[in-house]
Amino acid sequence: MSNDFLRPLAVVGLSEPYVRDLLVASYESVPGRWKVIVLADTETDLVTLVTNKVQEHAKACEKANGATLDPAVRRVHLWLEYEDVDWDLVQPHHPLASQVYLNTYCIRKGLIRKAQMAFNIKKYCSKHPTSVLNQTVPDTFIFELDHLDYLDEALNENYEIAQALEANETVSRESGLTVDAETGNTTQPDAPAIQRFILKPSLTGRGAGIHIFETLPQLESILGGYFEDSDESDSEDNDDEVSITSDYNNSSEVDNSPEGAADLLQSLDLSANGAYGATNQGCQIREWVIQRYIDQPLLLNGHRKFHIRAYVLAVGGVEVFLWEDMLSLFAGYPYHNQDLNDTSAHLTNTCLQTDRLDFDETTVIKRFWQLHEDPDPTLIQHELRRLTKTDLDRVFQQIKLILRELFDAVTSEMTTFQTRSQSFEMFGFDLLVDNQLQTHLLEANAYPDFKQTGSQLQDIVQGFFQATVELVNTRSSSLGGLNTWSSQDTPAAVHKKLHPVFYKPLMGGT
């Protein structure tokens, strides 16, 4: 029997080469002499292939002398795309389930789908009126629309938005402002009473389909791009219609990742600024969230808006860690309030900027903990001054509090967030800081787009992967759940930059 089989096995079936390389490097540096198998992109049936690899490893361990073999050698770590997971393999009844550690939870749509996260937060805040989420999550409304003809009815369900849009038009008239017939923008949108909103499809990521609006004509124009071709396509493809609904308690749905919506997103023609193009044939997205737009952001790096990308690791059932090294992702151009259609000033998603000829990752991607090195003063709490290290510490503490209560909220809804003691998952959270140094939670992402970190700051992501592999390696060494601490471990993180923010043993976690 080859000694190559007498090592724990890591199977890497992720599609992004950037991530695969980071994982291979991480396993090469942890104890245990892991055997790492990287599956080729050309494989057509990864589900069966992965199951076969797991079974081959188990048989090799038994043949090598299963009775006396170190239990740690039996381990299999699976790093797979959500749609390539054989969920039967990790169920408690499967004879190999105790050996398999998986990089995703089966059900976590209550966190990663914008509408369902908003629903869970609203429910949680109604029970916990003093929760930090009441102050740190922008007002969010779940918006469902089957056809543009029913827009009035949809707005009636969200009367606060309808009232705000009507009030905006009143302010425009009384202040002598005008509304551009083509864009729907006010000509002087700096009027303090104007309330702005941001529209996001519930399921998409990477800034796809995001729009800012402040008037009803503008909202009608945006939604018109979704529905202009739907009548014709609905008559042709009615049997194949894909609908995203607000069935928040539908636990039978297991494909809860943005990647699980790949077929849906292929029907969208997304231009570089996230808007839908003219070839959008019968898009079947019918659920969005509308958030109040934070129009007084903290501005740095040449008066630019930015958001924080925080990486979070959840393990077992469930323990949550925040990775200390965070990214600051800047808009491509200085911030202004004149033109809401100028996404290069308002949207900070890096993937929306990479196609620009003048794109420079050193300008738009920076380390969070170096923001205080910006030499220029900015408006902070009503005064012009430079950002300080103390300010950054304050923001970091706010993020930890937000994550703690957010996970308390979503894990309280077991039909939309279910754990497994031998699963773990890496999430990307987007947060925004306003000029009062108040941090706001924007959204959570499964399978975050790590490669958008770029090459200059790759060490941030490399460190996160390294710490994750170290923790999972240590916690899985005795073939127990990932919340079972070994004699070398403590309830705190095994890596000094993994900050524990939440722990709750869940009933029903397997």
What does this protein look like?
The protein is α+β, with helices and mostly antiparallel strands. It folds into three domains: 3-103; 139-292, no CATH class; 306-503, D-amino Acid Aminotransferase, Chain A, domain 1 (2-Layer Sandwich), CATH 3.30.470. It has helices at residues 17-28, 46-63, 109-112, 114-127, 133-136, 151-157, 159-174, 216-227, 230-237, 262-265, 343-346, 361-364, 389-411, 458-475; strands at 9-13, 35-38, 76-80, 100-102, 140-144, 197-201, 211-213, 287-292, 306-315, 319-323, 327-330, 365-367, 378-380, 383-385, 424-433, 439-446, 498-503. Strands 9, 10, 11, 12, 15, 16 and 17 form a seven-stranded antiparallel β-sheet that branches. Strands 2-1-3-4 form a four-stranded parallel β-sheet, with helices on both faces. A four-stranded antiparallel β-sheet has the order 5-8-6-7, sandwiched between helices. α1 (17-28) links the parallel β1 and β2 (35-38). Residues 235-282 and 486-493 have low confidence and may be disordered.
Q: What layout of secondary structure does this protein have?
A:
Elements: E1 9-13, H1 17-28, E2 35-38, H2 46-63, E3 76-80, E4 100-102, H3 109-112, H4 114-127, H5 133-136, E5 140-144, H6 151-157, H7 159-174, E6 197-201, E7 211-213, H8 216-227, H9 230-237, H10 262-265, E8 287-292, E9 306-315, E10 319-323, E11 327-330, H11 343-346, H12 361-364, E12 365-367, E13 378-380, E14 383-385, H13 389-411, E15 424-433, E16 439-446, H14 458-475, E17 498-503
Parallel strand pairs: 1-2, 1-3, 3-4
Antiparallel strand pairs: 5-8, 6-7, 6-8, 9-10, 9-11, 9-15, 10-17, 11-12, 13-14, 15-16
Helix pairs in contact: 1-14
GO molecular function: ligase activity
Pfam family, one: TTL
Keywords: Ligase
